[in-house]
Amino acid sequence: MTLDDLDKRILNQLQQDAALTNHALAALVHASPPTCLRRVNRLIKEGVIARQVALLAPEKVGAGLTAIVEITLDHQATERQIEFEKLVAHESAVKQCYRVSPGPDFVLIIQVADMAAYHALAHRLFATQSNVRNVRSFFSIVRSKFVTSVEVQ
């Protein structure tokens, strides 16, 4: 799918505030409301806009500890990696999971209430799994930058 200038303006505005009304969005991107609505619907249909969500302040909702965790598996066969991905996919505290190379096999971003909650999760997800060889955890002291926008090109 090719994105033209108007598509890019729409996407950039929606990444800043997806709660904009169609009329407000149309005014910001210099398009008519019907044109803007058609474009947004097309971008949703084509999968460019995957979903629209509210971003919460984790510390305000009892999830103030962020852990960045490196996982190395004992066996890296594709089916074993998929098995691990399925395991963490069902855990709501795991916010992001990346298969990476080189280095560890996975990097996880985890959001929990506190160190006790992290310990329970680590025991459940890592310590009891026979294929997890190494776990290296880093804990966020200060989040100095957090954005969800993607540069539209």
Describe this structure in words.
- This protein has helices spanning 5-16, 22-29, 33-45, 78-89, 115-127; strands at residues 65-73, 94-99, 106-112, 132-139.
- It is α+β, with helices and mostly antiparallel strands and 153 residues long.
- It has two domains: 5-45, Winged helix-like DNA-binding domain superfamily/Winged helix DNA-binding domain (Arc Repressor Mutant, subunit A, Orthogonal Bundle), CATH 1.10.10.10; 58-139, Lrp/AsnC effector binding domain/regulation of amino acid metabolism (RAM) domain (Alpha-Beta Plaits, 2-Layer Sandwich), CATH 3.30.70.
- The chain has a four-stranded antiparallel beta sheet, covered by helices on one side.
- The protein starts with a helix and ends in a 14-residue tail after the last strand.
Short description:
Helices cover 38% and strands 20% of the residues.
Oligomer: single chain
User: What would the CATH topology of the largest domain be?
Assistant: Alpha-Beta Plaits
Number of strands: 4
In CATH's first tier, which class of the largest domain applies?
Alpha Beta
| Fraction of helical residues | 25-40%
Please give the radius of gyration in angstroms.
20 Å
Fraction in beta strands: 15-25%
SSE succession:
HHHEHEEHE
Number of domains: 2
| Main β sheet profile | 4 strands, antiparallel
The appropriate CATH architecture of the largest domain is 2-Layer Sandwich
Shape: elongated
- State the end-to-end CA separation: 12 Å
The mean pLDDT is: 96
Biggest β-sheet: strands ordered side by side in the sheet: 2-3-1-4
The structure class reads alpha+beta
Q: Considering the protein shown, what is the CATH homologous superfamily of the largest domain?
A: Lrp/AsnC effector binding domain/regulation of amino acid metabolism (RAM) domain
Number of helices: 5
